[in-house]
Amino acid sequence: MKPTALLAKTRRRLLLTALALAALFPAALAAAPSALAHGGIDAGQEPWTAWNTNPLPTVLVLLAAYVYLNGLSNWERPSHPINNWQKASFLFGLFLIFFALQSPLDPLSDHLLSFHQAQHFILRMLAPMFILLGAPLTPMLRGLPGWARQGVIRPLARSHYVRQAYKLLTNPIFTVAFFLGSLYLWQFPGAFNLSLRNDEVHALMHLTMTTSGFLFWWVIIDPPPHRSRLHYGLRVLYLGLIVLPNTLLGAAITFSSGLIYEAYAEVTQPYGLSLMTDQQLGGLMLWVPGDMMSIVAAGIVMIMWYQREEAQHRAESPARP
């Protein structure tokens, strides 16, 4: 096969897989609001035994794992082999989604802001990062049934409008604006209180946060065969852009002198935490882990940048006799 044809085929495969991945996670979750909404803790129920009884999060996680592993088994001659740590990273990311939506963390977040912020941190930052580190593009595409690839995904990938939408959604300016915009939108008292009282709104909250997380990390991690538009230096700047807004929002919640989210006053608070103490812990949970993760990720990107520059320098240097 000619290099140009191979490149075109790789690009089509990339777009096909991106569409499949987008459909498998956020869109599937959006179709089932009850899987994302809080059920709360019943009277007399132990908090750490209050698991979400809706099986859909578990089904979606197992389905994603099956498609990924099935794709790996069907990939006889991988152009970019997936090593064991990448496989572990992908599966760990799926486990984080399971933990955030199925474990007692989900009902507890209906009563405590601190647990709610921890859940959002997992869905926005941790899970998308680990999943994309698993380089899921080609395995997810190869793991889909043939009728889905040929009858659904391929026609969409060939659509001019879908391609334009893909370019917009993966534009770094859009992704960082969407990432920060969704965070600020759902931290406003009106939107946050409404999400706690309405299951459909709560599902929309989790959908937008998870989607924004995938798009944000997409341009930083660029899982093969995808290549990000951003140079490594710009990726460091990109990560730095979210630190200050995240710090300001977390500090505003932490040091607020009054109750911000009144919906928590309508339910009981487990573990004897006062509303103000829980609110301060919630602000710190938003503030500190988010900033630390951005700084660590920026450091890792700088190391990768240095290693790549060194490799290019060695390749371009004349061979010694």
Architecture overview:
There is one protein chain. It is built from 15 helices and no strands. The chain is mostly helical and 321 residues long. It has one domain. Helix 6 packs parallel to helix 12 (199-221) and helix 10 (172-187) runs antiparallel to helix 12 (199-221). The longest helix is centred in the last third of the chain and has 42 residues, at 275-316.
Q: How many helices?
A: 15
User: Rg from C-alpha positions?
Assistant: 21 Å
Total count of domains: 1
- Shape field: globular
| Percentage of residues in strands | under 5%
Summarize the structure.
It is built from 15 helices and no strands. With 321 residues, it is an all-alpha fold.
How would you describe this structure in keywords?
321 residues; mainly alpha; 74% helix
Question: Helix and strand layout, with pairings?
Answer:
Layout: H1 3-30, H2 33-36, H3 56-73, H4 84-102, H5 105-108, H6 113-133, H7 137-143, H8 146-158, H9 160-169, H10 172-187, H11 189-197, H12 199-221, H13 232-241, H14 243-254, H15 275-316
Helix pairs in contact: 1-7, 1-8, 1-12, 3-4, 3-7, 4-6, 6-12, 6-15, 10-12, 11-12, 13-15, 14-15
